[in-house]
Amino acid sequence: MPRRAAFIGMMGMGLLTAVLLGAGAAPGEGPARADRILPAHPLHAENGVPCEACHGLAAESRAGSDNLLPAMATCADCHDVSDAQACGQCHTQPEHPGAAPRVTAIAQKFPHAAHLGEKMTCTTCHGPAAAEPHLPQKALCRTCHETASGQSDCGICHAEGEPWRPASHAPGWTSFHATAGRVDAAACADCHTETDCQECHAGDNVRPRVHPLNYAYNHALEARGQELSCSACHEDVQFCQACHAARQVLPESHSRADWVSGRGGGRHAEEAEFDLESCAACHDAGAPVCVQCHGR
Q1: pLDDT of 85-109, one tens digit each?
Q2: Other beta carbons within 10 Å of 215
Q3: Positive or negative CA dihedral for 96, 133, 153, 119?
């Protein structure tokens, strides 16, 4: 009995669903489908219709939440909105036309008026008029808004509390963001500078470790052969100087007995004449270190 009752109940639910789906449809027809707006921008561009003919409110818009989609009255300026066949050029259900869906992923404070006031055009951000428009990517914003570190200028267009973080920055992002950074460092640069990396990874705050535990004793070998790799994180030469000075670490040549003795300045004078740039790698803070002795 329980199985039979369950079967009858499922049949009843199926019949009810069929009745509800068919409600509102004409006899002999299937359920009505929702209207959909066909891609219309290329056709309008081909006929020389400018963007402002349909999106004229953009010139005065100062918020991304403004509805800049054309109303039916705007369409009526060029089309016979009482003719279903004419409406069928853009609507899949001209007998029951609906409004185009609004874009929800918007910058709440985005001012179209300010951008158009800077002599920018719609195509600058939304692509060529002969194609369907798209939202601008952050890399495009950076062509004018150059302050990346701290995202201080993002607040010009994005409201406080608005989700700025990319979808990729899900929980646990800090554990594997290094892999993404190696694959597409340019994408990171849309929001971050190398300073941001250094502030977070200062000292030994790097997991997993970039350098082995004994790196302080043999890093000089890699530093000589891969100087550019070191500068990827350690841009400021003061980073090297501060550590070496605190631990009184000197190049091997500086321990020679004749390094600063002998007539003519000793061995250090010869090295300076041969490769002064190597001296400047450490001795470049403030006044040249040579002046401390030779300027007397």
Answers
A1: 888 888 988 888 888 888 877 788 8
A2: 11
A3: negative
pTM for the model stands at 0.54
Sign, CA dihedral 69-71-72-74, equals negative
Spatial separation of the C-alpha atoms in residues 60 and 66, rounded to whole Å = 10
Residue in 276, 282, 286, 203 with CA at minimum distance from that of residue 241: 282
> Cα dihedral sign for 226, 229, 234, 236?
positive
The radius of gyration of the chain's CA atoms, rounded to the nearest angstrom, is: 34
* pLDDT tens digits along 246-276: 777 878 788 888 888 766 778 888 888 888 7
Q: How far apart are CA 146 and CA 197, in angstroms?
A: 18
Q: How far apart are CA 160 and CA 166, in angstroms?
A: 16
Handedness of CA 224, 186, 172, 147 (dihedral sign): positive
Least trusted range by pLDDT, from 87-96, 109-118, 230-239: 230-239
**Does residue 208 have a cis peptide bond before it, meaning omega lies within 30 degrees of 0?**
yes
- What is the per-residue pLDDT for 122? 92
- The whole-angstrom separation of Cα 222 and Cα 242 is 19
Mean pLDDT of the chain: 77
Tokens encoding 178:
């290094």
The torsion angles phi and psi of 15, rounded to 5 degrees, stand at -65, -40
- Helix (H), strand (E) at residue 217: helix 215-225
The residue with tokens 């007998």 is 95
CB 68 within 8 A of CB 61: yes
